[in-house]
Amino acid sequence: MSRFDLLALADIKRFVNAATLPADEPLGAEIDAFWKAAERPAFSALHSQAFKAGYSQGGPVEFNLGDFIGTISADPDSYSTR
In whole angstroms, what is the distance from residue 6 CA to residue 27 CA? Predict the structure, then answer.
């Protein structure tokens, strides 16, 4: 790969990205929904537990986040719509 013409590779990458990546427009609504959910007290409680356990440090919590999420719990009183 290192001997290929870099401009040609950049063009190919641009064409592949245009054909395979989703449009940017829906992403705005998804980001807004995430931040709205992140404002809830339950998110804050779970987020703090994850960081205390080592999330964002390149260890087992981060590499097995799905398993870790199943082991923590939020205070049921923090769910305002229950």
Answer: 30
Residue with tokens 């054909």: 19
Q: Does 10 score more than 70 pLDDT?
A: yes
Environment class of residue 61 by beta-carbon count within 10 Å: exposed (0-12), middle (13-18) or buried (19+)? buried
- Cα separation, 30 vs 52, whole angstroms: 27
Report the amino acid identity of residue 60: P
- pLDDT: which is higher, 80 or 52: 52
What is the pTM assigned to this prediction? 0.50
State pLDDT tens for residues 43-56: 888 888 888 888 88
**Beta carbons within 10 angstroms of residue 62's beta carbon:** 14
Backbone angles phi, psi at 50, to 5 degrees: -65, -45
